[in-house]
Amino acid sequence: MVESLFAQPPVSAAPVRAGDTVLVLAPMGEAVSLGAFAGAGRAALVVRVRETFGVDLPEQPRAVPSADGQVVFVWCGPTQWLALAAGDAVEGGLMARLRAACGDLCALTSQSDSRTTLRLFGPQAREVAGRLVPVDLHDAVFGPGHVALTLAGHIPVILRQVARNPVTYEFLVFRSFAESLFHDLHVAMNGALS
Amino acid sequence: MRLTCPFCGSRGVEEFTYRGDATVRRPAGDAGAAAWVDYVYLRDNPAGPHQELWYHGAGCRSWLVVTRDTRTHLISDVRAARAVAQAEREEGAV
């Protein structure tokens, strides 16, 4: 398991439910940001990740799993990505694996204690998310694998859809804003369903 | 007002920050005081199309060069500042 720097969980509340729609703090995993070095770093990084993880780093706001399914690469800007892995998914740790694979081509920074994941799922998840996020979440334009870097209310988030049935979103939010976003989403759940 | 980020798509202006005139260029180090005063302090205030820098701080954190009509807020072009600078450098090298 990943060891947190913090003694307290980022959100104190238990999972909340409105109808069949549920908001829950996702279990902590490992998160590492990749920032390609200037010059040829970006192109070389894409090639190296393809060789090591069997997947092309997304060129658009998308999230893609590695060939072995252990790591998800989330687009995070034109030259940046966020690698996510479940707590014990990668033997030896995600950071060590990335450093060995591509540490010479990009800046690797652990974000495990920086980002917190809130998971929202259920039949009304889209309506709830749409109350806070100013991007089009319609099924035709935003589906599983899609990513949006935007604001939820006033809180910066990396939003990604992970499943269609039931509709499941993950909000990657700065740890210190997690409690506030959890509250906002809870209010949105009650509002969207009333 | 909405801006179409070349990376994120159409987004509300609240995600962006205005970062000034995109047409000014740093003069050579030995250029006269007049050129430096112009670069540091003096800005045109055109009525019409204007190139300006915007920063997508709440999104992909890219710097953009936006062509906006100051009379109508019509956005006619949005490009990544990096691409604009690269094109200029290549033009200068030819």
UniProtKB/TrEMBL annotation, chain A:
InterPro entries linked to this entry: SoxG, TrmE/GcvT-like
Gene3D superfamilies, sorted: Heterotetrameric sarcosine oxidase (3.30.70.1520), Probable tRNA modification gtpase trme, domain 1 (3.30.1360.120)
Protein's UniProt name: Sarcosine oxidase subunit gamma
Lineage start: Bacteria, Pseudomonadati, Pseudomonadota, Alphaproteobacteria, Acetobacterales
Automatic annotation (TrEMBL), chain B:
Pfam families, per the entry: SoxD
Single Gene Ontology MF annotation: sarcosine oxidase activity
Annotated InterPro entries: SoxD (IPR006279), SoxD_sf (IPR038561)
Any Gene Ontology biological process: tetrahydrofolate metabolic process
Name of this chain's protein: Sarcosine oxidase subunit delta
Species name: Acetobacter peroxydans
Source organism phylogeny: Bacteria, Pseudomonadati, Pseudomonadota, Alphaproteobacteria, Acetobacterales
